[in-house]
Amino acid sequence: MSAFLTRPDLPFCKGCGHHFVVRSTVKALEILGVDPLDVILVTDIGCHGIVDGHFATHTVHGLHGRAVALAAGIAMGLPPGKKVIVYVGDGGATIGLQHILEAARMNVDLTVVVHNNMLYGMTGGQPSGLTPRGFRTAITPQGVKLPPHDLCQLAFDAGASFVARVLGQGDFSEVLHRAMRTEGFALVEVLELCVEYGVKWNPGLRLKALVEEAGLALGTWARPPRPVFRLPEAADGSPGPRGPGLLDLPPVETKFHSTLRGRWALVLSGSAGEGVQQAAMILARAAMAAGLHVARRGSYPVTVGVGFSTAELILSADPILYPGVQEPDAVVITSEDGLSHQQDRIRGMRRGILWLEASLSVPETGAEVRLRRFREPAGARYAALYALGVVLQETGILPLEALQEAIRESPLGSQFPFHLLPRENGGSGG
């Protein structure tokens, strides 16, 4: 048995072309002479993807249509000498066509093997964007009316270094070997017939005749070598972006003291485009500077600048094991949009405090209601941040000085009118 497989049997239907793809892949890797642990196989959703456990290489199972994007990220982060291979079906290739074209355009160093059995095999045999015209499927019993995408032509035009189209019969390991030894993006489209759905709906059809009738040219196409896309090297010579990564960022220095004991959940809700999410991030940084653990989640419509904007924050003296806000201790509403979005939550409150913009109607709630004017003194742009200042002033959970410093360290910086913030002992001022 090959060193690239964990078992000799394969999990596909009898007669399925996927058998030939796997056998030819293994032979190509053996010819290439790489170590199994220097190979990363990324599989998409589809019948081909159930082979993960049969490979002795590293394997990653991706989302439908996203395997190429996932593999591109892996390839960019690996040092030279590693080989990234993608298994994707014609359905996944259709869904992720933009990912394929972008990886080809960038010339990312990976090999994409497309198992084109001309339909979605795992969901009942529906046509994909690569199904030939006239091919009958579960939902096109009279035959597909549209011509297929020419995937090889699209990938090559986008910039692929090597593309090939072969029949999924017999041994085509030499073509796969050429693709794998190519520096840059390579794609091999393997044409197959699904023995369950393709043969069932197209009795008597022969694969070679289908390919000829569809006008799908078999062969290989290569272009002169061009630079492979790589991330700039880090200071230590390893691949990756220069400078610190997310996990390398320095921790927020504890400069202030918090009176909070336990966990405190706050919901801030207002209008999109009025700085709700920015205000929540500033409060989160202020809380961390006071030694607290913080979790934050934002929600807003796809329009971004119209409608509601809501931020949920959890401040805790102890590590936060669950970041969801089910029963808030405080809800802060700065506009009609925010009130409308949080109406059900407010109605269900049986405790806690509702800080409400004074110009709004008071909703039914079991929470203590505190009417405050947020928009009049601060305007729409700073109403959310001003409201958080009021909350800190009235609860004393954090010193206002912590909020002020977090504002200075934010993109707002010195442009923020600090005189709007309430004083520690009440009123307004810097």
Keywords for this structure?
430 residues, 2 domains, 6-stranded mixed β-sheet, 13 strands, 30% helix, elongated, disordered C terminus
Structure commentary:
- The protein has 430 residues and is an alpha/beta fold.
- The protein has two domains: 205 residues, Thiamin diphosphate (ThDP)-binding fold, Pyr/PP domains (Rossmann fold, 3-Layer(aba) Sandwich), CATH 3.40.50; 167 residues, Pyruvate-ferredoxin Oxidoreductase, domain 3, CATH 3.40.920.10.
- The strands form two sheets. It has a seven-stranded mixed β-sheet with strand order 2-1-3-4-6-5-7, sandwiched between helices.
- The C terminus is likely disordered.
- GO terms for molecular function: oxidoreductase activity, acting on the aldehyde or oxo group of donors, iron-sulfur protein as acceptor; thiamine pyrophosphate binding.
Q: Concise description?
A:
By secondary structure, the protein is of the alpha/beta class.
Domain count? 2
CATH class category name of the largest domain: Alpha Beta
Shape annotation: elongated
Report strand order across the widest sheet: 2-1-3-4-6-5-7
Beta-strand residue percentage: 15-25%
Largest sheet: 7 strands, mixed
Q: What's the average pLDDT?
A: 91
Q: What share of residues is helical?
A: 25-40%
Order of secondary-structure elements: HEEHEHHEHEHEHHEEHEEEHHEEHH
The total beta strand count reads 13
* Termini separation: 76 Å
Task: Specify the number of helices.
Answer: 13
Q: Let me know the CATH homologous superfamily of the largest domain.
A: Thiamin diphosphate (ThDP)-binding fold, Pyr/PP domains
Name given to the CATH architecture of the largest domain: 3-Layer(aba) Sandwich
Radius of gyration: 29 Å
Query: pLDDT under 50 segments (min length 5)?
Result: 425-430
**Per CATH, what is the topology of the largest domain?**
Rossmann fold
Structural class by SSE content = alpha/beta
Protein name: Pyruvate ferredoxin/flavodoxin oxidoreductase
InterPro entries: 2-oxoacid:Fd_oxidoreductase, Pyrv/ketoisovalerate_OxRed_cat, Pyrv_flavodox_OxRed_cen, THDP-binding, TPP_enzyme_TPP-bd
GO molecular function, one term: thiamine pyrophosphate binding
Domain Thiamine pyrophosphate enzyme TPP-binding: 44-190
